[in-house]
């Protein structure tokens, strides 16, 4: 890991390093990677949004300025981001699934289900009447929504061993972690759903379902059409990007609508918070130890001492970093490129930040398995 290349006074950052992969382990969808989120100033001009994209953003902003409250459904339509009918329908089904998961997590009845911390449940070897974990129930909710949408060809989920082929004519590929952070659910710590959306690769249509499901799910993050997360916390937030800005919607429980509350999020140029599991300090490479030591003593170019915040729930730690700035990272080997790092990197890049493994742009890493 090359943390020596990080500035000693980083702007806002998210990091998950690859060199902590077990030796010889392939870089794959199940591989952890470092992610760095830095301000737009750190991008070369060529990596900045194109003029066409900037024009689309300006007209979208004008549309938002001219109106009051805007719901997600309105935002998706012709007067808003105008994402196209297929994508609008898909996202409508996904947001419904997220609302069902939010309700499930908050329900007193979910003790009949089992938190992911509750041991080995819901596995295929269990009996039919065994309780399922909330992860598995969330996975089922998402799959059924995608089937109902008619717009998904494949769902690749962190919960499934293999991607599930849904429909030959579904235009979109969905990669998803249905319930991240669920280890903490029994103590009501925030959790989240993370997803990415790709176009179906029509050139693979002739292949057997299993093969085309795999290959469609292994697209590079650069090909993402959209990405998002739902944060299940004191408020339920749905944060989305369709490639022109990153926007967050808050669930209004009185109407059941997601309302646009954070249009065009810009990650602050500089934050004062670092977020990492400090207990692993002695496992970190020395570059990372030096970097954290420097910022927490206020010895970088930015003279203030950074504070630590670590919820141990990726969506919650990421969301705080997106809004307040700073750096969030996981230098261990258990966050996934396909389901977690790619969608979050897409979101942070469209908010003016950066996702890195310490030396490489996350979105440029080709998943291999
Ligand atoms: O134990 P660590 O290294 O602090 O990891 C915590 C991270 O693991 C996660 O719980 C994800 O783990 P899973 O992918 O196994 O659900 C994240 O939400 C969190 O950021």
TrEMBL record:
A GO cellular-component term linked to this record: cytosol
Please indicate which superkingdom the organism of origin belongs to. Eukaryota
Q: Which reaction does it catalyse?
A: beta-D-fructose 1,6-bisphosphate + H2O = beta-D-fructose 6-phosphate + phosphate
Signal peptide (from-to): none
InterPro entries attached to this UniProt entry: FBPase_C_dom, FBPase_class-1, FBPase_N, FBPtase
**SUPFAM superfamilies referenced in this protein's UniProt entry, alphabetically:** Carbohydrate phosphatase
Fructose-1-6-bisphosphatase class I N-terminal domain: from which residue to which, for each copy? 82-263
Instruction: Supply the enzyme class, top level.
Output: hydrolase
Q: State the CDD domains in the record.
A: FBPase (cd00354)
GO MF annotation, one: fructose 1,6-bisphosphate 1-phosphatase activity
Record's keyword terms, sorted = Carbohydrate metabolism, Hydrolase
Q: What Enzyme Commission number(s) does the record list for this chain?
A: 3.1.3.11
Pfam family for this entry, one = FBPase
User: GO BP, one example?
Assistant: gluconeogenesis
Which residues does the UniProt record annotate as the domain Fructose-1-6-bisphosphatase class 1 C-terminal? 267-367
Family from the record? Belongs to the FBPase class 1 family.
Protein name as catalogued: fructose-bisphosphatase
The organism encoding this protein is Vanilla planifolia (Vanilla)
């Amino acid at each position: 890991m090359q943390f020596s290349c990080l500035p000693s006074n980083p702007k806002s950052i998210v990091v998950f390093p690859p060199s902590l992969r077990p030796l010889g382990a392939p870089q794959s969808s199940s591989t952890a990677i470092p992610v760095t989120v830095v301000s737009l100033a750190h991008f070369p001009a060529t990596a900045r949004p194109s003029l066409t994209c900037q024009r689309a953003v300006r007209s979208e902003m004008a549309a938002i300025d001219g109106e009051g409250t805007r719901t997600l459904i309105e935002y998706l339509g012709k007067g808003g981001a105008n994402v196209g009918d297929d994508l609008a329908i898909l996202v409508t089904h996904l947001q419904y699934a997220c609302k069902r998961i939010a309700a499930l997590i908050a329900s007193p009845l979910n003790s009949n289900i089992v938190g992911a911390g509750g041991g080995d449940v819901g596995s295929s070897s269990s009996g039919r009447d065994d309780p399922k974990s909330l992860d598995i129930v969330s996975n089922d909710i998402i799959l059924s929504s995608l089937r109902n949408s008619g717009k998904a060809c494949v769902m690749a989920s962190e919960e499934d061993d293999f991607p599930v082929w849904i429909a030959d004519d579904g235009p979109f590929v969905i990669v998803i972690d249905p319930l991240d952070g669920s280890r903490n659910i029994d103590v009501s710590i925030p959790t989240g759903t993370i997803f990415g959306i790709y176009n179906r690769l029509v050139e693979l249509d002739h292949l057997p379902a299993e093969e085309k499901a795999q290959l469609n799910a292994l697209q590079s993050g650069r090909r993402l059409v959209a990405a998002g997360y739902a944060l299940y916390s004191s408020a339920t937030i749905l944060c989305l990007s369709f490639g022109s800005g990153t926007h967050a919607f808050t669930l209004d429980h009185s109407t059941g609508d997601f309302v646009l509350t954070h249009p065009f999020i810009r990650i602050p140029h500089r934050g004062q918070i670092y977020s990492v599991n400090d207990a692993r300090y002695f496992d970190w490479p020395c570059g990372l130890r030096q970097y954290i030591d420097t910022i927490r003593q206020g010895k970088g170019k930015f003279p203030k001492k950074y504070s630590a915040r670590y919820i141990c729930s990726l969506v919650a730690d990421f969301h705080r970093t997106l809004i307040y700035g700073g750096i969030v990272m996981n230098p261990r080997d258990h966050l996934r490129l396909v389901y977690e790092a790619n969608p979050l990197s897409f979101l942070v890049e469209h908010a003016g930040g950066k996702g890195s493994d310490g030396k490489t742009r996350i979105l440029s890493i080709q998943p291999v398995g």
